[in-house]
């Protein structure tokens, strides 16, 4: 039919050519359904779009998807970009099917049509024909975004490689605000290189996400031409490097919550680490030492909780606020935070004989033991203990109530057990309550032999709730 059309149009009159063309159209309208004919038409009309689609690699498409929410939607909508990615995937799957036929036998035109028809019948490609028109209209904008994503990706890759090649870092602590826990701190890390301004952990986390995406692509696809095996290895090393930093920051945070005097033991600005040619051995050693220190400190805390219940009331740096107030002899002033912390746990600062305090200790563990000795010596009145033969001390009471009725539930539990209402026997949970605080509460319950109330435990994370149940 095509051969006849070519011969007729070159040697015949207009009427003859028209008749042959009409016969050609009628033949193909009978042979293919409307969707296939529309696909053939769109393929012809969208030549520039298709050429551009085939010029992009899998990495280019990944870059495009990574910044899908970052651009100005007045230039192009997110949906249009996602439509273009879907179109790229449609072509990719069709090509795979066509190549499989080509490897077995000679490829005919109908084979190509059948491949397109079969792929277009898949659920995700049901409306793929509409994507040709919408994406062709926005081809210029899509091209601009692809160029921008390539530049951004190259900048990220360059920074990752720079960090692993030659960089220095230090940990820092920011004082956020002063609360009932004392000063609140946020830990961070600063990475420095001569080629760019210092970056913090949030920037590193974003770079790690990009490195993981590239690693995933290298495992799933074979056409990541822009990355060598050495590059992929460096990216893996970078992911491990950031994970090491993340563990260190988490350990510093937990040490702070557990009351470890980190400011004295780990002066942040005085210690610097380096990464040279993927080697950060000193940083790994610091991570291991922090992990060991956290484990030792938590064990020491639990041991001291058994001998000094008052320690369970303090978290973060509160115990050292009290220590500082005692040895600076400001604890009797109502403007001093140590004064109010001692009053809360039932110790009157006015009755403390400051001149008889033991010598101030130096190491964290000795300081903790020293504070336990001081607090125990000042405990004049005992807790309102439930009698040993009273079976109530072996029970856990669970009260279901509404937010408006919480106060009534609190009063009812104290009344039921014939115990005076004391503020320090109430622990109100929040979504920010940490496991270390809950563990101290459990020790306080069991070793004080009196009633303590945990209010709104449903606000605790599921992980903490599970640990809490196991400890009970």
Plain-language structure description:
The chain is about 60% helix and about 10% strand. The chain is of the alpha+beta class. A 4-stranded antiparallel β-sheet has the order 3-2-1-4. Strands 5-6 form a two-stranded parallel ribbon. Strand 2 and strand 3 form a beta hairpin. The model is unreliable at about 220-225 and about 380-390 (pLDDT under 50).
Given the structure, what is the number of helices?
Answer: 19
Relative helix content: 55-70%
Main-sheet strand order equals 3-2-1-4
Q: Kindly name the structural category.
A: alpha+beta
Report the span from N to C terminus: 85 Å
Layout: helices, strands, pairs:
Blueprint: H1 2-11, H2 14-31, H3 34-45, H4 47-55, H5 58-66, H6 78-102, H7 109-120, H8 128-137, H9 139-165, E1 166-179, E2 182-193, E3 196-199, H10 201-220, H11 229-257, H12 262-265, E4 272-276, H13 281-307, H14 318-328, H15 337-344, H16 364-378, H17 406-416, E5 426-428, H18 435-448, E6 453-455, H19 462-471
Parallel strand pairs: 5-6
Antiparallel strand pairs: 1-2, 1-4, 2-3
Helix pairs in contact: 1-2, 5-9, 5-10, 6-7, 6-8, 9-11, 10-11, 11-13, 13-16, 14-15, 18-19
Q: Main attributes?
A:
472 residues, alpha+beta, two-stranded parallel sheet, 19 helices, 6 strands, 9% strand
Summarize the structure.
By secondary structure, the protein is of the alpha+beta class. The protein has helices at about 1-10, 15-30, 35-45, 45-55, 60-65, 80-100, 110-120, 130-135, 140-165, 200-220, 230-255, 260-265, 280-305, 320-330, 335-345, 365-380, 405-415, 435-450, 460-470; strands spanning about 165-180, 180-195, 195-200, 270-275, 425-430, 455. The protein contains 19 helices and six strands.
């Amino acid at each position: 039919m095509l051969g006849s059309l070519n011969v007729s149009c070159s040697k015949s009159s207009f009427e003859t050519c028209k008749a042959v063309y009409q016969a050609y159209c009628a033949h193909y309208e009978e042979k293919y359904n409307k969707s296939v004919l529309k696909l053939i038409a769109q393929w012809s009309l969208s030549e520039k779009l298709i050429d551009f689609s085939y010029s992009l690699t899998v990495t280019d498409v990944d870059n495009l998807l990574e910044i899908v929410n970052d651009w100005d939607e007045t230039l192009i909508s997110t949906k249009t970009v996602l439509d273009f990615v879907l179109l790229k995937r449609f072509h990719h799957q069709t090509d795979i099917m066509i190549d499989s036929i080509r490897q077995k036998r000679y490829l005919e035109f109908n084979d190509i049509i059948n491949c397109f028809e079969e792929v277009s019948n898949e659920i995700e490609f049901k409306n793929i024909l509409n994507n040709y028109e919408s994406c062709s209209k926005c081809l210029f904008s899509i091209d601009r975004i692809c160029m921008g994503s390539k530049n951004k990706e190259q900048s990220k890759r360059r920074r990752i490689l720079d960090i692993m090649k030659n960089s220095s870092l230090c940990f820092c602590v920011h004082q956020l605000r002063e609360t009932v826990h004392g000063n609140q701190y946020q830990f961070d890390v600063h990475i420095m290189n001569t080629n760019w301004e210092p970056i913090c952990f949030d920037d590193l986390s974003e770079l790690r996400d990009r490195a993981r995406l590239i690693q995933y692509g290298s495992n799933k696809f074979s056409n990541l031409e822009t990355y060598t095996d050495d590059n992929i290895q460096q990216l893996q090393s970078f992911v491990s490097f950031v994970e090491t930093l993340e563990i260190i920051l988490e350990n510093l945070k937990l040490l702070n919550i557990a009351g470890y005097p980190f400011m004295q033991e780990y002066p942040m600005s005085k210690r610097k680490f380096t990464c040279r040619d993927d080697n950060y051995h000193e940083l790994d050693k610091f991570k291991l030492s922090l992990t060991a220190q956290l484990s030792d400190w938590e064990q020491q805390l639990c041991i001291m909780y058994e001998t000094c219940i008052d320690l369970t009331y303090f978290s973060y740096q509160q115990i050292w606020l009290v220590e500082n107030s005692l040895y600076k002899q400001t604890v009797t002033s109502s403007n001093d935070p140590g004064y109010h912390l001692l009053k809360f746990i039932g110790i009157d600062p006015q009755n403390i004989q400051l001149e008889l305090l033991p010598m101030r200790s130096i190491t964290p563990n000795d300081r903790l033991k020293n504070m336990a000795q001081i607090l125990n010596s000042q405990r004049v009145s005992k807790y309102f203990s439930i009698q040993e033969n009273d079976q109530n001390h072996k029970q856990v009471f669970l009260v279901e109530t509404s937010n408006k009725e919480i106060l009534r539930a609190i009063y009812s539990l104290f009344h039921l057990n014939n115990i005076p209402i004391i503020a320090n026997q109430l622990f109100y949970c929040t979504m920010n309550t940490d496991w270390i605080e809950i563990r101290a509460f459990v020790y306080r319950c069991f070793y004080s032999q009196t009633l303590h109330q945990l209010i709104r435990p449903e606000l605790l994370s599921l992980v903490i709730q599970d640990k809490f149940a196991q400890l009970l």
